[in-house]
Design a protein that fits this description.
The complex is a heterodimer of chains A (115) and B (707). Chain A is an all-alpha fold. Chain A has 5 helices and 1 strand, in the order αααααβ. Chain A has helices spanning 3-6, 12-21, 24-27, 34-85, 88-97, and one strand at residues 111-112. In chain B, strands 2, 3, 4, 5, 9, 16 and 17 form a 7-stranded mixed sheet that branches. Chain B has a 6-stranded antiparallel sheet with strand order 12-11-10-21-20-19, with helices on both faces. In chain B, strands 1, 6, 7 and 8 form a 4-stranded antiparallel sheet that branches. Classes of the chains: A mainly alpha (115), B alpha+beta (707). At the A-B interface, helix 2, helix 4 and strand 1 of A face helix 2, strand 3, strand 7, helix 12 and helix 22 of B. Strand 1 of chain A pairs parallel with strand 22 (633-634) of chain B.
Chain lengths: 115, 707
């Protein structure tokens, strides 16, 4: 006996009857789409998981932004300090205070000609 | 199958009535749920009061742009924006919780106060503020805690490094609701070179300042520097983190552009130091300015504007160089001379009658006798004077006479020539600020025109020009007659790449090369034999001119006096100027130094050949050593001492015996000797040929002889 012969005919009456008896899905042969349903379900799970991962990554990105910003600030402030202490007259004054004989040049540097 | 069996089978398959009841019940519930979902989804409208609580939190974040930096010609930072932090403390934090906690409240409060003690000590050590020790901070915390104060200022304007240190301290290393640390961040503008070129760099109140008050480059280029704000929406995640909401509007902040100026901060430093040093020597001078300009391009390499207060402190308050026109005095004689030479009316070696320095056409009150001429007559016994010598000693009579003789019948010819030198109006210069005066040249068609205006203009009176205009004119002479427009910003851009470049602009050609050469000869004579003898020994040959002029006094400075140049006590203000270019043979820089005195008693003067020329010499001498342009070139096959790498001493050699520095240059020799713990003395120039150890304090002194 083949399967189609064994299957109940889908009519309004059988649908209502199967609805109440709880085997409507079997009646409608939804079991044929079970792999698709499982696939869609898996996709849904993956989607939720990926969204969660994206959210976590973005949280990390935001934290890194803060760290990066702090480094930028640190860099800017260090640059400022270096430039500040590199002022020519400040260096001259510091050398003078330390009693060094090194002073600002009194004549232009001699340049060796390259062939 | 028998009927009996069929009946039993049917009975076995038939669900029990209880199960059927449950089945129907759940089915009904399912219908209700589906119906409810449809109702909520499409029909029901929630109470707006609760909606926000059920939606994920979102807020709009304004993204602040980074304000662009200001750089010098070589890319060195002149202004940079960086956040500084104000530190506040919630002193009342945990106090209520401790009070309510019957079991551990007292113990917790005691622990908190112990941490506060440690915090106070840490604050005193990290912040190092005068007069604020640990007890100061502890008292503030105790007082704040007693008075329920939740926002007590502990420090302001601290940098990021100190903030990190503070965050390591007890309480401050805990979350805000436990430790009470509150940090307010605000962008501040920092100027690494302090007061150097402050007026030129300028200022704005903050990056959002769009006021019309344009001070310096900050103000003038505010639009480029400030950038554009951005917008981003952020949403809260389930774990209360805030992340960028990619589904909402997003506009990134556009950082401001960097502005690269033509200034060379080292030249600015040289000019600033020279002007301060020389102004400090004179108690009469209250203001001064100096400008150094590149001959070929007109680029401003330094612009100093100093004001001296009653305590002798210097500060920059107004751009005198670009914004204070005044009667320039004798430096204007070069303008007159250019006109006469260019019109082919005189030669430098032509001679005119001295006539005891008196202009016969005018009364002595109108045109006083020129004492330089009477001195000349007495000294030489001659009644003729060459134009070159008249220029050299800066004789007013000679130039009045020449202009009267050659342009007396057509003064408009002379006046119109002054306009061709761009002396009648301000250039479109970037730093012309509010309150700047307007240059002026008398108009022959104007009702206020007097005959004396012509001969006054010949010696730099009756005309008003800014120091920058005078420098631009002299720069044109140095540049073979080609007048370059002065400019101070060379480009705007980002990350070192220029987006907009401002190139040198030729205003016009004011004279021929021959006239410029003749003028250069005359100007060189002034520094060698004339009124600017201070420059005779400058490191390179300078061509320039001194100028001393009485200054026009505002009526409020001379109450009751009708003479615009003096008050009732006869006190006057003087403007002293030296302007020139160097090296005279192949000019690289033009510079001007102008000083302004306070009101001086009759007979007291401040000449252009004194402080301005002295300042100019200091600038020339330092700049000459600073520039590689004038370096001596040594041939590679010349006599260069051999130096071995292992002979180079570093601080690791501090315990080493006396280093052998023979053959070293002076700089390397001093480095090696001082790093080895000795002091150093030297004589001569070149390379070390001998060294002697002299015992004394410490390890003693090494005396070097260089040849």
């Amino acid at each position: 006996m083949n399967r189609s012969e064994n299957q109940e005919k889908v009519t309004f009456k059988t649908v209502v009857k199967s609805l109440f008896s709880g085997d409507i899905l079997t009646l409608l042969r939804v079991d044929r789409f079970l792999p698709v349903i499982i696939f869609l379900f898996a996709l849904g799970i993956i989607n939720i998981f990926l969204n969660y991962m994206i959210e976590q990554t973005m949280v990390k990105v935001e934290r890194n932004k803060v760290v990066l910003e702090e480094y930028k600030i640190y860099h800017a402030q260090k640059t400022y300090e270096f430039v500040k202490s590199g002022r020519m007259s400040t260096v001259q004054q510091m050398l003078e205070e330390r009693g060094s004989k090194v002073t600002a040049p009194v004549k232009p540097a001699e340049i060796i000609k390259a062939d | 199958m028998s009927e009996q069996e069929k009946y039993e089978d049917r009975e076995r398959r038939r669900p029990s009535r209880v199960l059927m009841l449950f089945h129907i019940l759940f089915l009904l519930l399912a219908f209700i749920v589906v119906g409810r979902i449809i109702y909520i989804q499409w029909i029901w409208e929630p109470n707006p009061k609760f909606v926000n609580n059920f939606r994920p939190s979102k807020h709009k974040e304004v993204l602040e742009p980074r304000r662009g930096s200001i750089l010098d010609h070589n890319g060195r930072l002149l202004a940079i924006s960086t956040p500084l932090y104000d530190i506040y403390m919630d002193c009342y934090v945990q106090k209520e919780a401790n009070a309510k906690n019957k079991t551990k409240g007292v113990e917790n409060e005691k622990k908190w106060m112990e941490k506060a003690e440690l915090l106070s000590k840490g604050l005193a050590e990290v912040l190092e503020e005068d007069g604020k020790d640990a007890s100061y901070y502890m008292n503030r915390i105790k007082e704040g805690r007693a008075n329920k104060r939740r926002y007590v200022r502990m420090a302001s304007g601290i940098d990021h490094g100190k903030l990190l240190e503070l965050k390591q301290l007890p309480l401050f290393n805990e979350p805000q609701h436990k430790g009470g640390l509150i940090v307010d961040k605000a962008d501040r503008r920092l100027y690494p070179y302090g007061t150097l070129a402050r007026r030129v760099i300028g200022y704005v109140k903050n990056n959002n300042d769009t006021s019309q008050i344009h001070i310096g480059i900050e103000g003038k280029f505010n639009h480029e520097l400030r950038g554009e704000e951005g917008i981003a929406w952020e949403r809260r995640t389930d774990k209360s983190n805030w992340i960028w909401d990619v589904t909402s509007q997003y506009k990134p902040a556009k950082d401001g552009l960097d502005v690269r100026t033509t200034l060379d901060i080292n030249i600015q430093d040289i000019a600033d130091k020279a002007l301060k040093k020389n102004m400090a020597r004179s108690e009469h001078i209250e203001r001064g300015c100096a400008v150094v300009m590149d001959v070929e391009t007109g680029a401003i390499r330094a612009m100093v504007n100093l004001q001296k207060d009653s305590l002798g402190n210097f500060y920059e308050s107004f751009n005198l160089a670009a914004g204070l026109p005044g009667e320039p005095g004798s430096v204007f004689k070069a303008v007159t001379m250019t006109t006469l030479l260019e019109d082919g009316l005189v030669n430098l070696d032509d001679e005119i009658e001295t006539n005891h320095g008196i202009m016969k056409e005018y009364t002595l009150r109108e045109m006083p006798q020129d004492t330089y001429i009477t001195d000349y007559e007495r000294r030489t016994g001659r009644d003729m004077i060459s134009i070159l010598y008249g220029f050299q000693i800066s004789s007013n009579y000679v130039f009045r006479r020449l202009v009267k003789d050659h342009y007396g019948d057509s003064p408009e010819e002379f006046i119109s020539r002054l306009h061709t030198y761009n002396l009648g109006a301000n250039f479109d210069f970037e730093l012309t600020e509010k309150g700047s005066g307007k240059p002026s040249i008398p108009d022959t068609k104007d009702a206020s025109w007097r005959e004396t205006h012509l001969v006054s203009a010949a010696i730099g009176y009756a005309v008003k020009v800014t120091p920058l205009q005078v420098a631009t004119f002299y720069n044109a002479i140095a540049n073979n007659g080609k007048m370059m427009k002065p400019y101070i910003v060379e480009s705007t851009g980002k990350n070192g790449a220029a987006q907009q470049k401002f190139k040198p602009t030729v205003l016009n050609s004011i004279c021929s090369k021959a006239t410029a050469d003749t003028l250069t000869r005359a100007l060189t004579q002034v520094t060698l034999e004339g009124t600017a003898k201070k420059l005779r020994n400058a490191k390179c040959k300078v061509a320039g001119k001194t100028g001393t002029a009485r200054m026009y006094l505002h009526p409020s400075e001379r109450p009751g006096s009708k003479d615009p140049y003096q008050d009732l006590q006869g006190r006057k203000k003087h403007q002293g100027t030296f302007v020139g270019f160097f090296p005279a043979d192949d000019p690289k820089y033009t510079a001007i130094v102008v000083t302004y005195t306070k009101k001086l008693a009759p007979g007291v003067n401040a000449y252009g050949g004194d402080v301005p020329a002295g300042t100019f010499k200091d600038i020339v001498d330092e700049l000459w050593a600073y520039e590689n342009e004038w370096s001596e070139r040594l041939e590679t096959d010349g006599d260069i001492p051999d130096m071995e790498a292992e002979n180079i001493f570093t601080d690791k050699d501090a315990k080493a015996p006396i280093p052998d520095v023979k053959g070293y240059g002076l700089k390397d020799a001093i480095y090696a000797i001082e790093n080895s713990g000795f002091r150093c003395e030297y004589s001569g120039t070149g390379h070390v040929v001998s060294q002697t150890h002299i015992k004394g304090n410490g390890k003693g002194t090494i005396r070097l002889t260089l040849k």
